[in-house]
Amino acid sequence: MTADLAPARARERFRAGLSIPTSGWCAGYTQANLIAVPREYAWDVLLFSQRNPKPCPVLDVLEPGELGGAILDGDVRTDLPGYRVHRDGELVDRPSDAREYWRDDLVAFLIGCSFTFENALLGAGVPVRHIEQGRNVPMYRTTRRCRTAGRLSGPLVVSMRPVPADLVETAVSVTARYPQVHGAPVHIGDPAELGIADLDAPDYGDPVRPAEGDVPVFWACGVTPQAAVLESRLPLAITHEPGQMLITDARDTDYLL
Amino acid sequence: MTADLAPARARERFRAGLSIPTSGWCAGYTQANLIAVPREYAWDVLLFSQRNPKPCPVLDVLEPGELGGAILDGDVRTDLPGYRVHRDGELVDRPSDAREYWRDDLVAFLIGCSFTFENALLGAGVPVRHIEQGRNVPMYRTTRRCRTAGRLSGPLVVSMRPVPADLVETAVSVTARYPQVHGAPVHIGDPAELGIADLDAPDYGDPVRPAEGDVPVFWACGVTPQAAVLESRLPLAITHEPGQMLITDARDTDYLL
């Protein structure tokens, strides 16, 4: 079972070429978004994160030349299932290994991911539909704007989980206890209020089928800085493939309030 | 009563020259630590803060040329009661107005302050001895080390409040709800465990008299980056005088979880 794997074993598989969403993998271990940019843009990214802590909670920063760190006993260039390479506002490649594009002057940000609290949701009896359905979580660009930082601006990106109406309050209180991995939802109910026209057409990830009586619940998403580097046309940014996260050696409970 | 003043009125007095600790001023408004450094060291300070969020919760960053911002409708160079100017690891001046030393390339960090939750402590029935005694809060350099960031390293600095033994639990749970302004205590009880030899000889602020049955309770303190710029011998850093904070226009409740 992938849920029972140790992070190092999971990363071994990804390093060997497996590309797959990581929701449900390595239960109890923290998953992270990746965004790596040239050093000259690192200040803007760190400041953007500080100004938009809900979508961009920084778990760690790897400085130029560092490939692992306090929460990663591995290699950030190879240990994710999938990467995206962005140049001048275009998505130019989706490799399963980023070494071809990596440069010595890249600063890598590891940003909290809502997969971290899914295990706690399940433990509290809240079903997680996309795990049930073996799919990636659906993610959407919204019409809410992030606070700008230097060259970086962009929309808030959210992930969505359909939650049975009588468990929405539980989902809120469970996730509120994880402020470093997006915390409580940013919106509950009508997707139109976030400018989302069609839940079946996510901007990232897969559509997910709600069950009868489910309400859509939206959390801030660590794909937000990806949308910002695209919109802001940074010359180079290497990120994870949405839903295909870095599985770190940190424990979910490290981020439990 | 200074507790009832609006922040703009308090800042007016400080701008006019009043130098005084701000604990208890402008009840309900958030107070902040200041650290301003040349742009070339700003990355290290922001990364140091990210790596040491308990002592260094960043509330806002003013970029070069910005003298106010989202939480300050004023002038960061004049609106604090007192400043410290540090050069190459030495404290060189303690002016009540920093304009003489300010430079256009300075980046100013506004960092959360535990004065923010003192009003909540009082509201929960926890006495705050240094307010009762009309003194500055006592602060101590500890033997705990912060995580290093680039050129910046230093000790954890803590503030101490004596709390009646039967109210320690209340003090913990009240302050835990303010994670952006240092949150729950880092230590309760024996000061020797933090390497503090004598509570009556604080490194910053004033000694405070405990009442019978009080236990010393220690919170991470926003003076921590001051200790780091001194130890790390940055060429220039302008900070607040410990205990003489920037009173912002943000509400304490903005930082309540």
Automatic annotation (TrEMBL), chains A, B:
Listed Pfam families: D-Glu_cyclase
InterPro entries reported in the protein's UniProt record: D-Glu_cyclase (IPR009906), Putative_hydro-lyase (IPR038021), UPF0317 (IPR016938)
Class of enzymatic activity (EC top level): lyase
Record carries keyword Lyase: yes
Source superkingdom: Bacteria
Keywords from the named record: Lyase
NCBIfam families reported in the protein's UniProt record: PRK05463.1
Family: Belongs to the D-glutamate cyclase family.
Name of the protein this chain belongs to: Putative hydro-lyase JOF36_000978
Organism: Pseudonocardia parietis
